[in-house]
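Researcher: Can you fold this with coenzyme A in place?
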Amino acid sequence: MEKVCVIGAGSTKYGKLEDSIADLAIQASVGAIDDAGIEPKEIKAGYISNVFGVADKQVHIGPVIMSNLGIPEVPSLSIESACGSGSVAFREAYANVAAGFYDAVLVTGVEKVNHKGTEWNTTYFSYCSDFFYEGGSGASFPGLFASMARAYLAEFKATEEDLALVAVKNHDNGLLNPKAHLQRKISVEDVMNSPVVASPLKLYDCCPFSDGASSVIICSENFAKDHTKDYIDVIGSGRGGSPAALQGRDHLTTIPSTKIAAEAAYKMANITPKDVDFAEVHDCFTIAEIIDSEDLGFFEKGKGVDGVREGLTKRNGDIPINPSGGLKSKGHPIGATGVGQVVETFEQLMGKAGERTVKDANIGLTHNFGATGASCAVHIFRRA
Ligand SMILES: CC(C)(COP(=O)(O)OP(=O)(O)OC[C@H]1O[C@@H](n2cnc3c(N)ncnc32)[C@H](O)[C@@H]1OP(=O)(O)O)[C@@H](O)C(=O)NCCC(=O)NCCS
C-alpha cells in the first residue's frame, strides 16, 4: 500500500448560512486546493459526503463541484452514511490512494439544512435511524441519546451536571474557533437551566443543526514530497458497525462500532490510546463524548465521567478532546462533520490552530459515527 498524506485543508464557517449547498462545497474545496498549493487538474477523483442535498435541491453534487473547479472530466463519488458520511468519504478516498488508483484526490463534505427548520430536520434526520424500530415509532435522535444518557447515569452514578461539563468545555474551545457555529461562553448553570429537549438532555447538551462545508486534499507520499515540505501522514484507518437500532445492542453505554474501528486504526498505526495527543470525537450529545472517550480507550468503562470532572479532556489536559469545539459548539453539518474533524487535526498538527493549539501534539485521532453509532470510522494522523 502507498503511504497516504494530507497536504491541504479548507472549511467554510459552520452555522446558519445563506449560500447554496453548491457554493459552500465549492468554497471549501477551493480553500483546500489553495492551501495544498496544487492545480485543480492535479486532482484525479472526488469523494463527496452529503446526506440531505434534497433540502437545497442539489443531489449528485460531485459533478457540480468538479465542473466549477474546471475539471468536469474528473470522476466523483457521492457518499451517504448519516452523520458519519464525512469520515466514510475520507476512508474511501484513503483506500483508493493507498491502493494506488489515484495519487491526489479531493474529499469534500457539505450540508445545508437550516433553512428547512427544526421540524423538517428532526423528521428527516430520524430517517437515518432504523426507521421501523426508532424514527417511525417517534424516537428522534435526542430521544435515543437520552436513553443512552439515562442508562449511563444509572450504571455509573454520574449526574446531569457531569454531562453539562462536556458542553461547557466544548463551548470554551469553540470560543477560540472563528469557524464555530455556537460561539458562546456557557456555565453549568446555563446548561442545567436550558429547556429540556429529551430528559435528561437539555438544549445545551445537544449539537445544533448546522450548515457548512469542509475539504481536504489527500495524496500519495511521492505526490506530497513533490509539492510541499509540510504535511501530515495518515497512519491508521478503521471502520466498524453496530446493530442499527439501540434495541439490538447488549448495552446502551457503549458503541460497538467505535471499539471495532478504533482497534483496527490503533493496530494499523501500531500505537495505543496512550500515544494519542488529542482527539476530535463525535459529541452529537454530551453523553456521546463521554461514551466515546471510553470506547476509544482513553478511559476505562465508567471512568470517562471522571476524566471530564477532573478536567483531563480540556485543551491543556492529559487527553484533550474536541479542541475545535466539537459538534456541540463548532456545529454539526452532518455531511461535513467527519471531514471537518480532519481539517482541525491538520491545522493542529501543522501549527495553524492559533489560540486553540494543543501544545506539543504529534498524533491526532478523529472519530465520527452515523446515527447512534450504527456505522463508524476512526483515523489516526501524525505530523510527517
Ligand atoms: C436542540 C434542538 C432541538 C434545538 O432546536 P430549536 O429549539 O428549534 O432551536 P432554534 O433553532 O429555534 O434556536 C433557538 C435558540 O437556541 C439556540 N440553539 C439551537 N440549538 C442549540 C444547541 N444545540 N445548543 C445551544 N443552543 C442552541 C439557537 O442559537 C437559538 O438561540 P438565539 O435565539 O439566541 O439565536 C435542535 O438543535 C436539535 O434537535 N439538535 C440535535 C440535532 C441532531 O439530532 N443531530 C444529529 C445528531 S445524531
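Model: Folded with coenzyme A in place. The pocket of coenzyme A is lined by residues 83, 118, 122, 125, 141-142, 182, 197, 203-204, 206-209, 284, 332 (CB under 6 Å).
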